[in-house]
Specification:
By secondary structure, this protein is an alpha+beta fold. The protein is built from 25 helices and seven strands. The longest helix has 32 residues, at 294-325.
């Protein structure tokens, strides 16, 4: 039954089931996952062969109980492969991906199990189920159908083969992209090339170079196309090199080229969609989301495209005038952020680089993010230095209700490193469930450059906003109160999952929060109120650029996943260009937030045909932000209602029902248009 010293084989003895990270070795993951698959298959066999007539308890609840060992180990392994990987973890990921795909298919595609689920679904009105149970049964049946459980045996066999191959390819895409992102970091050895960067940014670049054993400075790459240093670097040739490095990821013809991998992914996803009876992968994905169809997605994107492009045209003219005034070249894509910051300073008397001394990481986290959660929900956070995270940079906090009742654990891993994939995200290491008796253990990962030892971590304004955003996901995981594990926390429709994170961004500049955390790290002085007012007034600045770069990426995702099974693409760059032209989003000064070859969200991150979900969920999200502001902001009464209707239900009811329960009506697009400067 495996190595008795394997920490996964028994429930963790640490608070909240926190994994025993100090004892973990790579082989523990493999052994526990293999044993966990074996145990769950035996449990599912017993359910499928149960001679008793199907009931909610002996089928649906039994499925929810199954796979206890996998529930312990898989989230921890997935976090390791994303946040702190190495050669051993990468090799395990490549080995286990097809095995796990086959395991999940063996359950989802089991005709005996599907027959029991189908029988229950057909008699669902007679079962006397509670609302969360009825919703669970509906989703289990729907997801089984969309997974292919109703196919004939030959088709199911082919589907399982496709899923196994796709799992291998998406793992390879992530590993190639991480390697190429590390390789393409911009190494600078002439200090004059750093002109424009402040002392903090220079120190961070020096530390990044030192960590790799290099002289000089290293500008590491973040996941999106736009790199933070582009806003400050004074030399246009350095900006050109940095943007070129960013846009070269995955398409240099080098060892880590991702083009053939992604073409294979697109081809296999299209074949799988056809097998399931859909014209393309986008249709198959949206059938299981709130949007319902690619046409609905395209409709929303199209509604926003024309006004967003008009805003970009106006912004482009202003930047061109600024470039002319300072004797700079005609603007190119690498110049946009640099010129925009000058215009922002001119129009709003606001230099975002000057905000960094007021955005020290610990103050933003404790006196900003945590404080907002206390105002709204009464939560208290206690640092647990006695609990070990998976990396020395990881900090652990215990979360309590105001009355002292335990809520869960929050882990925070802020810094970039070569072993961590790009971007920022939330993961649940343990999911809350009344059935299992577990409370949540969640982690927020970011990619903030780490300063030299002894120096403060000063955030950019975007990084501070990202921290508030990702903590919104963490709250969803911590505060969901559901019966069944599959409905826990962020286990909701993909095009609803971003709503709590977007709403949590509201508190960054609300007066009851910003006055607590925006404090100069040296002088202790609060950020001047006039600066906060200018920040608030400038929230719509550069809105055209921000929206168009996002819409371009969302349109690319849809274009790739509306390819039919009989279609073939040979030239990735040519397809990207033609797709952007067709969508009306082709602007050489505004490249997509993610170009195809480094679009990790859709080729490795589970957002395939679903990148639209950010703007889709922002429609109700912006409406809810206005609701908060109209009802007095971060009050306990507002937080209690929002918690009850949006966060507590997790995935236990339809998102539309939750939104209507909060607002008293269906959401309107008008708040989004106002927020995006499109009204």
């Amino acid at each position: 039954m495996g190595d008795a010293s394997n920490p996964f084989l028994e429930p963790s003895t640490l608070p909240y089931g926190l994994p025993l990270f100090a004892l973990l070795r790579p082989e523990h993951y493999r052994d526990a996952i293999v044993q966990g698959m074996h145990e769950q298959r035996a449990e599912v066999e017993a359910i499928a062969d149960d001679p008793a007539p199907p009931s909610f308890d002996n089928t649906i609840v039994a499925l929810e109980r199954s796979g206890e060992l996998l529930r312990r180990v898989l989230p921890v392994f997935e976090n390791a492969s994303s946040a702190d990987t190495d050669e051993a973890i990468d090799a395990l990921d490549a080995e286990l991906a097809p095995l796990l795909a086959a395991h999940h298919d063996a359950i989802r595609l089991d005709p005996r199990l599907f027959a029991r689920i189908g029988l229950l679904h057909g008699m669902r009105e007679e079962l006397g189920l509670d609302p969360d149970q009825a919703y669970l049964l509906e989703r289990v049946h729907r997801e089984a159908v969309l997974a292919g459980a109703a196919l004939d045996p030959e088709a199911r066999e082919r589907l399982a083969a496709l899923n196994a191959e796709l799992s291998t390819l998406t793992t390879a895409f992530q590993q190639h992209l991480l390697a190429d992102t590390n390789d393409l970091a911009l190494h600078l050895v002439d200090e004059s090339e750093l002109a424009g960067l402040d002392a903090g940014a220079r120190s961070t670049a020096r530390e990044a170079a030192r960590t790799r054993g290099l002289d000089g400075w290293l500008l590491t790459l973040v996941l999106p196309t736009g790199q933070p240093a582009l806003a400050a670097l004074a030399r246009s040739d350095v900006r050109d090199r940095l943007l070129e490095a960013s846009r070269s990821r995955g398409c240099r013809g080098a060892e880590h080229d991702t083009r053939q991998i992604l073409l294979d992914i697109v081809r296999l996803r299209a074949e799988r969609a056809r097998l399931l009876g859909f014209p393309n992968h986008a249709a198959a994905v949206t059938a299981g989301e709130t949007s319902g169809s690619p046409e609905a997605v395209t409709g929303l994107l199209a509604e926003l495209t024309a006004p967003a492009m008009r805003n970009v045209a106006r912004e482009r003219d202003v930047l061109a005038s600024r470039a002319s005034a300072i004797g700079a070249r005609e603007p190119v894509a690498a110049d946009w952020s640099f010129l925009a910051e000058q215009v922002r300073a001119e129009q709003h008397d606001l230099d975002l680089a000057e905000l960094r001394p007021y955005l020290e990481l610990d103050r933003v986290l404790v006196d900003g993010v945590f404080h907002a959660a206390h105002l709204l929900y009464g939560l208290r956070f206690t640092a647990r230095a006695d609990l070990v995270g998976y990396h020395p940079d990881t900090r652990v906090f215990e979360v309590f209700e105001e009355d002292g009742m335990p809520v869960g654990l929050y882990l925070f891993d802020p810094y970039t490193r070569d072993s961590k994939r790009g971007g920022a995200w939330m993961s649940a290491l343990v999911s809350q469930s009344e059935l299992t008796g577990d409370l949540a253990v969640v982690v927020n990962n970011m990619n903030i450059p780490k300063p030299a030892a002894g120096e403060p971590t000063l955030l950019t304004f975007d990084e501070a906003e990202t921290l508030f955003h990702e903590f919104g996901h963490a709250l969803h995981g911590l505060l969901a109160r559901v019966r069944y594990p599959s409905q826990a926390g962020t286990n909701v429709y993909r095009d609803f999952v971003e709503l709590p994170s977007q709403v949590n961004e509201l508190w960054l500049l609300r007066p009851e929060v910003v006055e607590r955390f925006a404090v100069h790290h040296e002088t202790g002085e609060r950020m001047p109120q006039q600066v906060v007012d200018r920040l608030t007034a400038a929230r719509g600045f550069n809105a055209g650029f921000d929206l168009v770069e996002y819409l371009a990426a969302a349109a690319l995702d849809q274009a790739w996943h509306r390819i039919g099974a009989g279609d073939r693409v040979a030239d990735v760059a040519a397809f990207e260009r033609s797709s952007l032209v067709a969508s009306g989003l082709d602007d050489p000064l505004v490249p997509p937030r993610y170009s195809t070859t480094y679009f990790a969200h859709v080729f490795a991150g589970g957002y395939d045909a679903g990148y639209y979900s950010y703007i889709w969920s922002e429609v109700p999200g912006a409406d809810i932000m206005e609701w908060f502001e109209q009802h007095g902001g971060a009050t306990r009464a507002n937080g209690a209602r929002y918690r009850r209707e949006i966060l507590n239900p997790g995935g236990s009811r339809d998102p539309g029902e939750s939104i209507r329960a909060l607002l008293g009506r269906d959401p309107s697009i008008e708040p989004l248009l106002r927020r995006r400067g499109l009204a």
